[in-house]
Q: What sequence folds into this?
């Protein structure tokens, strides 16, 4: 039986709070495309995803073992280090949720853990080979592989049946989307729920509650699964809106291709113990689906902001984790100060989010999100010669389709042919 101290209990509760934020932060990974194409109603979609996340949590512990046994030296870690790591991860999750960016909860957790560990025990306590092979390389490769696979699958789908755009075909692909969305939710449970299992197990080892090298206890698996399922059911509507309609416009067959490719990549990585970002995989798949359809577009202004968030996730969470660890190292009052800061900052972010409430009514197909045009797109519209347009009241109006841009160019002046001034005939001689 595990013996708990107060700090260990605080760490476990904080880890489950992180798992909860992970759930509503990553709901979009499984259900955004299903909702945007109308395959499932928003609340039904998140309920289904929550149930399958819980089931997926029981399928494997390989990713949990990567975190609890492989990433850092567990023998030199104190529970306060885990608490500091979770502080950085939770705050990054909440900030990116506030602005609707699908960043990686997994990398936020890894960054917080690395930063806190370095601040506590130095660089030598981080296993660099595990960090590179099981975290960084999959972070780069996964979205590329998923994106290429989805693009090829989408092109193949349209190539095999280019004219099958009837309601029966769309209904068939929507049915396939429901199945593939369920698979993504199941895969998400096998990968992301395990990260919290791993961090709690690491805290239990650090606190002397279980022996080093132990697998996650059953109660840890159950509590982590329930926490991520509860967060998923809440629905991260801000990120669902971005993922479903902010990156590209999807038809049912594109959504089906994106979700199937993403689920395959996530399940394979879970089996291999890779701490993969499901957000990276699904985002790459959605962009691949947009590029795979003829005439499809990717809104690169949104994608660029997302890429920046991805690049900042590890270092930003690491800096917060390191700072929090420096404060907790001062003693019990330092740990209390970090706890107060975490609660206050989380409450402030929630209060700011109430200024613009985003709920399930904002993510249905009828409420498609229009992403503002970026600087590059606007500049291109200003300098590109327009095709033949409509001339009306001296203006040529050119529509830019899915980008939502309209460029108005003065029409060429129409020169009327000169008319000769009539000349009076000469007067007849008297």
A:
């Amino acid at each position: 039986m595990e013996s708990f101290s107060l700090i260990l209990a605080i760490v476990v509760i904080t880890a489950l709070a992180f798992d909860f934020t992970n759930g509503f932060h990553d709901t979009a990974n499984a259900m955004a495309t299903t909702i945007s194409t109308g395959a499932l109603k928003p609340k039904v979609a998140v309920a289904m995803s929550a149930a399958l996340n819980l089931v997926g949590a029981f399928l494997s512990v390989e990713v949990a073992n990567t975190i609890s046994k492989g990433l850092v030296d567990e023998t030199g870690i104190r529970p306060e280090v885990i608490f500091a790591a979770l502080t950085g991860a939770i705050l990054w999750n909440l900030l990116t949720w506030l602005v609707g960016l699908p960043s990686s909860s997994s990398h936020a957790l890894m960054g917080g853990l690395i930063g806190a560990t370095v601040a506590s025990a130095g660089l030598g306590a981080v296993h660099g080979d595990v960090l590179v092979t099981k975290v960084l390389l999959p972070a780069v490769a996964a979205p590329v592989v998923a994106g290429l696979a989805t693009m090829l699958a989408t092109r193949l789908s349209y190539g095999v049946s280019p004219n099958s755009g009837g309601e029966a075909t769309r209904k068939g692909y929507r049915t396939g989307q429901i199945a593939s969305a369920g698979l993504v939710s199941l895969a998400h449970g096998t990968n992301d729920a395990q990260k919290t299992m791993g961090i709690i197990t690491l805290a239990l080892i650090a606190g002397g509650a279980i022996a080093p090298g132990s697998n996650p206890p059953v109660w840890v698996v159950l509590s982590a699964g329930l926490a991520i399922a509860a967060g998923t059911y809440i629905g991260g509507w801000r990120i669902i809106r971005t993922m479903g309609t902010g990156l590209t416009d999807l038809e049912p067959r594109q959504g089906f291709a994106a979700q199937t490719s993403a689920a395959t990549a996530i399940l394979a990585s879970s089996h291999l113990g890779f701490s993969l970002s499901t957000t990276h995989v699904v985002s790459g798949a959605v962009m691949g689906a947009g590029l795979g359809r003829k005439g499809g577009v990717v809104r690169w202004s949104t994608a660029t902001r997302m890429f920046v968030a991805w690049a900042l996730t590890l270092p930003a969470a690491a800096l917060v984790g390191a700072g929090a660890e420096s404060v907790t190292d001062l003693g019990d009052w330092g740990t209390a100060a970090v706890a107060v800061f975490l609660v206050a900052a989380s409450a402030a972010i929630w209060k700011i989010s109430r200024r613009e409430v985003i709920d399930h009514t904002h993510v249905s197909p009828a409420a498609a999100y229009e992403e503002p045009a970026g600087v590059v797109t606007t500049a291109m519209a200003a300098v590109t010669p327009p095709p033949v347009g409509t001339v009306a009241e001296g203006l040529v109006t050119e529509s830019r389709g899915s980008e939502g841009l309209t460029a108005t160019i003065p029409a060429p002046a129409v020169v009327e042919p000169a008319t000769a001034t009539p000349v009076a005939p000469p007067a007849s001689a008297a």
Q: What stands out?
A: The first helix runs from residue 6 to 36. Strands lie at 390-392, 395-399, 406-410. The two ends are 138 Å apart (CA to CA). The first strand starts at residue 390 and ends at 392.
